[in-house]
Amino acid sequence: MTSENTSLQVCTTPADLTALAEKLHADGRPVALVPTMGALHDGHMQLVRAAKQIPNAAVIVSIFVNPLQFGLNEDLDSYPRTLPEDLDLLASEGVYAAFAPTPQDMYPDGFRTTVNPGPLSTEMEGATRPGHFAGALTVCAKLFGISRADHAFFGEKDYQQLTLLKQMVKDLNIPVTLHPVAIRREKSGLALSSRNRYLSDTERTLAEQLSASLRAGKDAADKGATPREVVTVTRDYLARYPEIEVDYVELRDAGLRKLNDYSDNSLPARLLLAARVGTTRLIDNMGLMLQPWDY
Ligand code: AMP
Fold it and tell me: Which of 46, 118, 120, 278 is least surrounded by CB atoms within 10 angstroms?
């Protein structure tokens, strides 16, 4: 069914969205897709603004809390759902259509096939969240197909997801161009996230230390620190806050490959972490430039 929310079209079934996308293509308009799980904030809106830069594109935002990417003990049931507010926000940003299917619409009885991502899917986020990336990539593959997306926008906030998506699109020859969008942060440095609304005031102050620790690591790299030193500086920074339960701190190259023991050249790299603050699990990452090193 398709209904109107001011000028925003709202599709709830895959068939409706596909019909809409095919009409857009017949009219010569590219589809620019922004996949989200809703509880929209200004980080999501950065993706929408980037999508609007594609000439003549119709921006379509999907809102779907994807059960396939949540583990058994994760926050699927309590994940914030704010659909009416989300639709108002999208309408006010001039988005063409929203896609808000139910789990049954996306995974009807008889659904069998999932994406099997490569080895990176079991590291970092994947080590703590088994099956998470298989679920995330599967829903994105479905969304690309349903929406006939020509362009799709993803935040660097989920840098590992973005890296795996690039690999999937390449390996499976999916005809969509992916556009990475820089992380949107509060003035304090805290990366915007739908999960930030779980945080108490005290926890929020602690959560702000995550980006500060990445910044400390990046500053060390700027001064010529080796990869090991960068990680140590970041961990030591976090160790000053014993209430923060660190899951991992890792430094990888920009494609998330593990770093060698030496490099003759400076190298763009990514510093990534996950940590629990109270019961809320948060992730963040930052790009930096490593100087040549040798251990
Ligand atoms: P989510 O709704 O959390 O699944 O996120 C949907 C998309 O928005 C993903 O591509 C995220 O990487 C992106 N996103 C979430 N938070 C931010 C942020 N603070 N800055 C940029 N992109 C973000």
Answer: 118
